[in-house]
Amino acid sequence: xxxxxxxxxxxxxxxxxxxxxxxxxxxxxxxxxxxxxxxxxxxxxxxxxxxxxxxxxxxxxxxxxxxxxxxxxxxxxxxxxxxxxxxxxxxxxxxxxxxxxxxxxxxxxxxxxxxxxxxxxxxxxxxxxxxxxxxxxxxxxxxxxxxxxxxxxxxxxxxxxxxxxxxxxxxxxxxxxxxxxxxxxxxxxxxxxxxxxxxxxxxxxxxxxxxxxxxxxxxxxxxxxxxxxxxxxxxxxxxxxxxxxxxxxxxxxxxxxxxxxxxxxxxxxxxxxxxxxxxxxxxxxxxxxxxxxxxxxxxxxxxxxxxxxxxxxxxxxxxxxxxxxxxxxxxxxxxxxxxxxxxxxxxxxxxxxxx
Length: 355
Prior knowledge:
By secondary structure, this protein is α/β, with parallel strands linked by helices. It folds into 2 domains: 17-57; 69-352, P-loop containing nucleotide triphosphate hydrolases (Rossmann fold, 3-Layer(aba) Sandwich), CATH 3.40.50. It is 38% helix and 19% strand. It has helices spanning 10-18, 24-29, 32-39, 43-57, 65-70, 87-92, 113-123, 148-156, 158-161, 167-172, 187-203, 216-221, 228-249, 268-272, 285-289; strands spanning 81-82, 97-98, 102-107, 136-141, 179-183, 207-213, 253-257, 259-261, 280-282, 294-300, 305-307, 310-312, 315-321, 329-332, 349-352. The strands form 4 sheets. Strands 5-4-6-7-3-10-13-14-15 form a 9-stranded mixed sheet, sandwiched between helices. A hairpin with a 2-residue loop joins strand 11 and strand 12. Helix 3 crosses helix 4. The longest helix has 22 residues, at 228-249. The radius of gyration is 24 Å and the shape is globular.
């Protein structure tokens, strides 16, 4: 680093050079007492040194809460959300997905996770007045082929699902042209996608949503049981990349996750992760859970619900944790196929009352 560019006393710069500190990373990673010991500077001098280095490497100026309240920094868009195009889900999520951070949806196979992701890929293309971001989406598949048939069925149903939108809008927009599909067969391909190709689409404004379906598939298949540390290292590098993309481009990241059976009597099975009925738990453990800002979960419920001459296998979507959301859930009570069978019909959500 060129220390001469810092707006601080030359005496402080001389002390830093004498201590053989060569990078800003060292300054910002060391504690104040350590810097005092290495440089023999006073506490006040070390404070000015850290402040100058931080200011020189800060990508954006600091923003106060008052400035956010006045709307002086629309880039942050703190109050905006990406709608899920469902009034019940939008109420539970206070408007939809946050534009910054990782939102995870975990659940068993066939419960309908991919259908929610597809609906988001359509919702993001709507104008802002209809809860969208007026842009496209990137859909990264890591296990199953892209569900093109379900997408086409949802596109055909948009006129019925979104009655508040003028009908001529559906004729003017080709939804499928704005969804960029990537297939990642291994971790190398996945990292190349999120570090090279996805940033190009985001920088050009072609997309404002990133979907990963699923985040657990490759991390579960490429590492053995005794390689937990190595897996965590790659997982944290991947999540850091997602966080960076989300923050830099103000783009929601939606990750679908698999589940694993909960061991009866264990701490997590007793509800330490916030689940109402922890028979299954989101995969990848705490290493991944700590990277997620919003965790949602879809589960099959026991029994059936009579709907005329048909029966329904109900399922529930619940908020497991989020910094801005209360515990809430809703149930899908539409007619459905047997548990574990994929279906193309839209969900019919009803709120669930919590004690």
